[in-house]
## 1
Amino acid sequence: MAASSAVTANYVLKPPPFELDALEPHMSKQTLEFHWGKHHRAYVDNLKKQVLGTELEGKPLEHIIHSTYNNGDLLPAFNNAAQAWNHEFFWESMKPGGGGKPSGELLALLERDFTSYEKFYEEFNAAAATQFGAGWAWLAYANDKLKVVKTPNAVNPLVLGSFPLLTIDVWEHAYYLDFQQNRRPDYIKTFMTNLVSWEAVSARLETAKAASSSSS
Amino acid sequence: MTTTIIIITFLAIFATSLHNARGATMEPCLESMKTASLPDLPYAYDALEPAISEEIMRLHHQKHHQTYVTQYNKALNSLRSAMADGDHSSVVKLQSLIKFNGGGHVNHAIFWKNLAPVHEGGGKPPHDPLSSAIDAHFGSLEGLIQKMNAEGAAVQGSGWVWFGLDRELKRLFVETTANQDPFVTKGSHLVPLIGIDVWEHAYYPQYKNARSEYLKNIWTVINWKYASDVFEKHTRDLDIN
């Protein structure tokens, strides 16, 4: 089980921390075969091709993401770099037998910053449901506060100055096979009820807090 | 002659009274604002096979396009109320919902007309004057198709690839739009001739992640007759060669 440190690895297609059929029936093996095996793989392969022979070659992934974000005026490698990062982060946000409510310090902070877990759920659900077109919804941490963020296409909280803690992919390819007839709301509910790895989220929160306090 | 003067005078008085009336009451055009409705497909759901499956056509038309229509009408209703209340910040806030859902409706209404079954001319190359104009601007029809496919494949996230006419610059060109932004958001003088939906829902059940395959195959059902008719309509008064 990884904290976010894995995402600085050099453009490797890491397998998810579970077998491709381990999330059934909530996320099918077929979806993972395409989503990880084709989409995620393509982002990694295309990124490698794109940075070959450029000054970005060999740089850590997060460095590439920041420099190609270019304050919103995206440079060509941004999409592949950020999507490679986002997908690895996404797999690690899930686990077999996941979902439900968190506990401990994470729950306490959610209750502090959203007044209740239910309010957080509502906000996260709304962000995921209302992101136009392709994108992601996130739980993120900044300035000692938790917040929900939605982003378009490949954008992630790293470039917006906050620590990502949890994400759900709402590009159509993430749910189109399993939740036919465009049922994004059902996909979001299934993710929250059956897939979220709160352990991963808590571990990331610890890292984020440590990083914040060491830099202040 | 006298009759003409009487009629003109009558019309002038009528116009003035309308103008005065409007100042005193609410703009009548809002109340009579027409809502959108889902247009019927001009062909059966399975008529575009094997290029586009029946499953996709049903989902795309009955779920996706219908949702845009429903949400657009909802947003228009909210806009009507906000305008009646003078709630300007709500009026502004509603614009993104209107652009997204209204754009979705506009784009898909064009898209269904851009497609035709093979036995009804789908895939049949355009004739003049559009054909010559395409050769002049892109070298050949294959040149245009290659460009459309390259740009369509390169769209990141959701969007459309368009082949259109620029009335101002009097030229044909290929352009992409993001999400459901209608083609005219790139310029009010732009006329869409062919649009291809590259949102994942347009091809995923059949082609999965192979967007390039979808783009390659869709040309067998593209309705060039529609594009030609629109092109001719708009170039009649322009001097395009």
## 2
Amino acid sequence: MLEKIFLLLCFSSALANQLCKPDASDGYKVRISLKTALGDDAYVWNENEMFFFRSTLAFAMRTHVSGQRFEVSNIVVCNETPRVSFWFVVTQPQNLSQLIDKEHVEEAIRKSRSRINSAFLLTDNTLEFIGIQPTLAAPVEPVTPPWLIVFGVVMGAIAAGIIVYMVSTVVRKKRKKNEKTNGDDTDDETRVKTIESGRAADGVYNLSFADDERL
Amino acid sequence: MKLQLPNPDLEDRILSYEQLDRLEEEEAESRPKWDNKAQYMLTCVGFCVGLGNVWRFPYLCQSHGGGAFMIPFLILLVLEGIPLLHLEFAIGQRIRRGGLVLWSTIHPYLTGIGVASMCVSLTISLYYNTILAWIMWYFFNSFQEPLPWSHCPMNANLTGYTSECARSSTVDYFWYRETLNTTPRIEEDGGLQWWILLCHICAWSVLYLCIIRGIETTGKAVYVTSTLPYVVLTIFLIRGLTLKGSLNGVKFLFTPQISELANPKTWLDAGAQVFYSFSLAFGGLISFSSYNSVHNNCEQDAVIISIINGFTSVFSATVIYTIIGFRATEKFDNCLSGNILTLINTFDLAEGNVTESNYKDTVIHFNQTHPEVIQGLDLENCDLNTFLSEGVEGTGLAFIVFTEAITKMPISPLWSVLFFIMLFCLGLSSMFGNIEGVIVPLQDLKIFPKSWPKEAVTGVTCILCCLVGLLFVQGSGNYWLSLFDTYGGSIPLLVVAFCEMFSVVYIYGIDRFNDDIKFMIGHKPNFFWQASWRVISPFIMLFILVFYFITEISEQLLYKVWDPESENFPTLEDKQYPAWVYVVIVVLAGVPSLAIPVIALGKCLWSRKSEKVRLNIGAQLHN
């Protein structure tokens, strides 16, 4: 009895070895970069982590392939390297010698990608499934482009400034006009004074006439 | 025997010393005046210190032998820049007019110099404000995290990034596609780009607000626009020095290669840089100086402003290269990490086995054991000096290289906002001088009726320039801008500067000029000024002019285009200009340069004709 169990185990592991090999048609290569992702806080990749990984994959398969109860033993791993990379294949729960199709495996992994990543504190770049491209996040487009808002603010300030200047010019001119009409009497006296002082000296060079001649 | 061309009736056209002193006392002048000396100095500093100090000088410095470039730069600064500056300040302060009236006062035939200055100032004003519009666009886009030039947009069916962006880089794509929307040829105009049009109108509005009442408003604006760049540069210097790899950049910039001094192009570029950096021959500096009081010490001003200009060039070069050093080190580290990752992925080595220090040995080892695999990997050659030499100039530096560096710094939007405010202030303060060089001659030509207030004159000028500047808002605007910059702003300025020097020294008379300066500042200019005004500076100007002319004529006229369909994309492709562009070039460079002799000849013939008519009438009356 014991021998039979022993033979069966040997047989199944041999079968599993045959199923899982590098470049298997229904398998995927996984590459994990712990040091890049976590730096000094990186944990060591050992058997327990591998067990965790296989159970995560089994979870993904259970959730997305309807009706079948996958176990950790259905995820077969081989060809581990110090890089931390390995190949895996998924066998059917009922028939250990039959593999699940590549497309189903890919679909399951794609859908649970974020859960798998967060289980290991990794990202799409540091936990790679070679052959399965990560789906890019859809861009968030705000309703109004932010630059238009800043443009509006700046343009408003400039327009306000120009209007203020125009208004102050008009006010200044009006004030001058008022002063002129009020101060007409005092102007005559000052005009007499300048003529007297002008006669004594040689006269100030009148610039306004010079322009016409010079050009 | 001093050379002096005949100049009759000069005394009748200029104010005598007594008249000048009386003007000063009675303040009878109706001309605008500076509120205080600081405003005048800041305006001149702002005009001289411009975008060229930030994005032309560092490139020249680095490409012509680093620290060794300082030698020709400083020598030519002293022999060419300072004398010309002093000359412009002194003549403006003495004659107390700017623009055309100044030159026609010195001699009626010389009005052409004023016209040429005006044409050049107009040409440059048109396109310079478009650069400000681009800076504003980047400034508006800096108020978001992450910055829009740090990631590529997705393509139509959201499967990946747009192909143009994926093949070049995020910053290249943002500049050529999302900002300029550039066409592959200058003939294709691509239509007006509405977002740049908005920024264009905004830039002209800001300029109008600052020059609305002439130096009354400009004088207040320069308190901000001339001082803010220095504050920002200091902040960037402190930030830059704390970044990794910044000292690599500074070392690369200043490492001297004395052999470059033997290359004549180094001296030529140094001379041209000094000349253009001082914004001479635009007419703006003469105009600003004419608003000064008569006894202002223009000699001291010239020396101070030259020192500030030179210092700013070196300072900004240092700041720029700390940031470029940081960017180059980042790129180098990324390149190396990429190669290391490829290696450990291919050979399934543990992470951390291959580091920067043993990378080379590892490659050699694997090249011996698996040579075909190593060849197949096609590992990039990572060289820090290559990345450092990617230092570009002009718009490429500001909008591609520097923006890329900013995206890698923490709190990128803050640095982006600061950088573009600094560029905007640098450009705006230069625009004040450019526009002054346009408006004052226009007023002298009496194009605007006298009844119009100053606000209307500046307003109409700004609106007209804005409309003509729409040429640069098109898809092909970038190509037009570099065309105007290369041909409209180079040769005519050299011609005008040479004529200015010649006119003041030999037509106005160096003796009279020396006496004027003695009257204004109290002592005669010493031997250095005499030698440089009479011989050294004109000779240098002539030399640079002739060489520039020869190089422009002999070179094939090519321009660089961004063409996504070209083979070498993303490298810019060289294309030849179409035939009709040559006409544009001749007009841009030829009209201002030829205005001087043509107008001189025209006036000469006209005065001879009117002299003959007068003699005839006189003879008839006598009979």
